[in-house]
Design goal:
Blueprint lengths: L2 H7 L2 H5 L4 H14 L5 E2 L11 H12 L12 H15 L8 E4 L2 H12 L5 E6 L4 H8 L3 E6 L10 H7 L4 E7 L11 H13 L3 E5 L20 H4 L2 E6 L12 E4 L2 H12 L7 H13 L1 H22 L6 E2 L7 E5 L7 H12 L1 E2 L1 E2 L8 E5 L4 H12 L1
Length: 389
């Protein structure tokens, strides 16, 4: 088959999807490590701590008990009950089990929510910088992404006024990510109240990606827009999971919670695509949500220290600066004063200094670098010694 024939085989959607910049550079860094090159990885998007022992023990118990078959597509009852309890106690949101769906990672929940809400031509409003997968998911649903640019001066957050000016007749969904990947921005309750007013006035729905909700470094925490009022709760699909707060990225447990009609539609989509998440992982996640609070708290305390250290190290690099992230585990460094764009500098850091970072280009910020502090304080210091040369 010729190259020309191959192009005819692929669908237009398949050809439109861009490869993940985060996965691509991580793979390149791993390849260098396999060659024996001591790469320092500031590109990672997962906690470096191991999964809690009590969670792993429950997984072993599940396997020994033969809990290895299909489960209900939307999730086992005990996990959905644990999620409802988590949302009530930690987020101030009351939902019933039928308003919850468990998926193979939060990414699947986001995609299912977009497919359930977005028709061809519908507009999804997306604050930028944004997680790299959001626009690609909207494109796969034949929707239109409308980006709302933010600035460091505004804390990388949109305002209610900005949102109101961006709404058109085609606008249907606002996608909020708080705490944010890549910027670490966290919306306050007051900011969410004002944004919520615009949502209700314009008959919008909200997909609220809250996967980093337990990793915050401010006094208020990371409130959910669904906790503002019942009216907003009735228009919000909360996305969360076990990956970040409980260091369970490879276990692939995410969930969505929201209006019954939308969750049911997401369930039908999941029925016909992946069916249930791993039975063993679901059992393990029950323990994480029910008994993992101290682990999540300890993780946040340690990551707060690493955040402060990385911020101090960034300020020592000529031409670099960084707005302090209030959540998640990334520093989004502004490198515009270096005279280099993010792609150029990221490749230079990897090839010359063996430091892996993610260029901000795919996040909608071509003069920023995303650096993860999911590494020890010693490695952070060593990495920046290399960067400063």
């Amino acid at each position: 088959m010729t190259v020309k024939d191959q192009k005819k085989v692929l669908s237009e959607k398949a050809k439109r999807v861009a490869p993940s910049a985060t996965l691509a550079i991580t793979a390149k860094a791993k390849a260098l490590k396999e060659q024996g090159i001591p790469v320092i990885n500031f590109a990672g998007g997962e906690p470096d701590w191991d999964t809690p022992e009590i969670v792993k023990e429950e997984a072993v118990r599940a396997m020994k008990e033969g809990f290895t078959k299909y489960t209900p597509s939307a999730g086992i009852p005990s996990l959905k009950k644990a999620i409802c309890k988590k949302l009530e106690q930690e987020n101030g949101i009351t939902v019933a089990p039928e308003q919850v769906i468990v998926s193979s990672g939060a990414k699947q929940s986001i995609y299912n929510a977009i497919l359930a809400l977005v028709d061809p031509g519908d507009e999804l409003l997306l604050p930028a910088p944004y997680w790299v997968s959001y626009p690609e998911m909207v494109g796969l649903a034949d929707g239109m992404t409308v980006t709302l640019g933010t600035t460091e001066e505004a804390g990388f957050k949109i305002t209610a006024t900005q949102l109101a000016k961006s709404v058109t007749k085609k606008s249907k969904v606002l996608l909020l990510n708080s705490p944010s990947n890549p910027t670490g921005a966290v919306y306050s309750r007051g900011e969410l109240e004002l944004i919520g007013e615009i949502v209700l006035e314009n008959d919008l729905y909200v997909i609220s990606d809250e996967i980093y909700d337990r990793l915050y470094y401010n006094a208020e925490g990371a409130p959910s827009i669904a906790a503002i009022s019942k009216d907003l709760a009735d228009r919000t699909i909360i996305i969360n999971g076990a990956s970040k707060s409980y260091s369970m990225t490879g276990w692939r447990i995410g969930f969505a919670a929201g209006p019954k009609e939308i969750i049911a539609a997401m369930g039908r989509i999941q029925d016909q695509t992946t069916s249930c998440a791993s039975s063993i992982s679901q059992r393990a996640a029950v323990v994480a949500f029910e008994r993992g609070k101290q682990f999540a708290n300890d993780l946040r305390v340690e990551y707060h220290k690493r955040r402060d250290l990385m911020l101090a190290e960034i300020e020592k690099v000529p031409g670099w600066s960084c707005y302090p992230p209030e959540g998640a585990f990334f520093c989004f460094a502004n490198i515009s004063k270096t005279g280099k764009d993010a792609e150029t500098l990221a490749n230079e850091l990897l090839e010359k200094h063996h430091i892996a970072v993610i260029p901000g280009t795919s996040f909608g910020a071509p003069y920023h670098l995303r650096l993860s502090f999911c590494v020890s304080q010693e490695i952070i210091r060593e990495g920046f010694e290399r960067i400063r040369g």
